[in-house]
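#random but structural
TW: two for the price of one
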Amino acid sequence: MRRLSFERKVKLPVGYKGLRLDCGYEMDLVVDGKVVIEIKSVEKLAPVHEAQLLTYLKISGMRLGLLMNFNTVLLTDGIKRIVY
């Protein structure tokens, strides 16, 4: 409704010493080129999920990420905001 652009399954290459490496990183959603959204459906979010989102933020140069777990009674209980 707000006409924000978004992309799904955005590939994220890694640069190392001038080489472009395709490491298989893939961000679930990128909204308006500014926010990375990582979607999960797990019993409980683990530190590895936060580390994954932080890695995406560092490599992409974006600063804001949302880690969303859909396996909760209330959706708001499953959202974690991460700023890098």
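TW: number two ↓
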Amino acid sequence: MAQSVVIVGAGITGSLLAWRLAKRGCAVTILEGRHVGAGSSSRTAAGIRQQFSTPATVRGMRFSVDFYRRFPQLVGGADVPIVQNGYLFLYDREESWGAAQRRVHMQKAAGLQEVEALPVEELRTLFPWVDPLTVLGASYCPTDGFLHPAVVYTEAISAALRLGATLVQQAPVQGVRKQGDHIQAMITPKGDFAADIFVDATNAWSPRLGRVLQATELPILALKRYLWLLERGPSMSPEALLGLPLTIAPSGAYCRPENADRLLMGWAHDATPEADFSYEDQDRIEPAFSHRTGTETAAFETWATLAEVVPAFAEFPGIVATTSGYYGSTPDHNPFLDYDPLVPNLLRLSGFSGHGAMFGPFTALVGDALVQAGASIPHVEVLGEDIQLAPFAIGRDFSGAEQLVI
């Protein structure tokens, strides 16, 4: 008998898992508190990279990149959601440059053959717009890039519905019916929804959903993150801007083309966790981060630090927009992909720390395997290799922290 599954959250994680489960014949219901893509999936820089610090994640992201390249054939729609401009990490200290070279060696061993460690001489040849006096070297992978998130969740939900899944929007989970430690049904304003297995795909919303479900308290913090759009100037042609890789300065500030005339910029910052933020808070721009409240803000600081390594940016005319959303961050910046210890039929797929869009296909693969098993499993097969799931288990010790967080 096909399993019945209720998924909470209709972003990239929930929509791709719904499609995969429905394709396998499961009876799938997706519950969404607002509307499809209302959360962080629609507010992300949407980078996708295979340059990670652990072999398991490198292999998982190789799978994700391959999946997104073949998205129209696998899921549907006319558009390929991945733009493979590459990822370029820049380094200006001997310590960080040495660590980058060691990571590249590990990444190649994990199957990412196209990644390279570029000494400054090679960097100058490949990327002449980088100021070579400001860096010692870079790591570069040309098959990395960024995504169009709306294509992913819109087409995945549509594909799931074609396969028989049910989508219920404006249906926040308000309570739960349980028998012993198992969930029987989730209670929403649109009715009660019973299933064999329930999935938390709410990311930054996961802690509050966990409280409603009487589940394990996961160490996921909702942290505000900002993005800015910088208008292109004559110092760089539309074609040059459009071809830029997603570039990460030594400071951690990053940028990528939004289109031929605008550069998207971001930079992680210290933030106070917001346990009870609302959907509307996603659009709340604090003055210290707005491009409209003077030049002594994070917006202009980000622009300035990027212009140090790419001097052409200094001649761009100005920032034209500020947007924001929330990361669901964990202590080691790796997600939880595991069953809840207190609620055996609750699967937690949350805490992506800004990596939810790129993890989407891998998360759906792992989620499907976990649904089929009905319990925690040690590994999944990806691209012909076993990937250990211990780095994503609930209750891990957080010692294997992801080092490349932007």
